[in-house]
Amino acid sequence: LLFLNQLQKDLEEVKELLTKATRKRLRDVLMTEKHKLELEIKNQPPPRPKDVAEEEKSSLGGYTVKINNYGWDQSDKFIKIYISLNGVQKLPAEHVQVNFTERSFDLLVKNLNGKNYTMTFNNLLKPISVEGSSRKIKTDTVLVMCKKKHEEKWECLTQVEKESKEKEKAAYDTSDPSEGLMNLLKKMYAEGDDEMKRTINKAWVESREKQSKGDIPMDI
Predict the structure, then answer these.
(1) Beta strands 104-112 and 96-101: pairing type?
(2) Is the pTM of this model over 0.70?
(3) What is the pLDDT of residues 30-40, one digit of tens each?
């Protein structure tokens, strides 16, 4: 707005100089400058009404905080995510927005105590019904209700969580219990210093001696 005012003042001064200029060369220079200023003013974005600007500033709050803490539960028909936000029930309903897709949702809470709050869940474990999903505002809590497309139990919320659990389980669930230990020893030996290698070699020799004497039945 300040820049636009400066341009308009420059244009007024150029117009005033034109009324006084008599030399053709000077008039040509001033006319060129006049056209440039008029074009620049024309291309400036129109100023927004003050009330609109103030309302927008008020609705957006100060800065955005990503929500990481939540609780969740499920019934036969719904996945329920509980997000604690002090005083959220005092906000206008339109300041608490949730957008759903078949495998995701994102929450935006605007201008709660001068801050915005967001939470996004992508790659939900199973598909949800966009039309049947909703949000409820309770005292100090937002409840996001994801309607299950199929009435079945979810073991976790997202596909990423499921894959992580499966990898963790596979690391411990082996048909040969000694295989994991052998892999660990090999890794320690390969990455260890001379002292570590001597320690592992000593343990290996001692275990072989005990096995040959029948003290331990399992070969490590």
Answers:
(1) antiparallel
(2) no
(3) 888 888 888 87
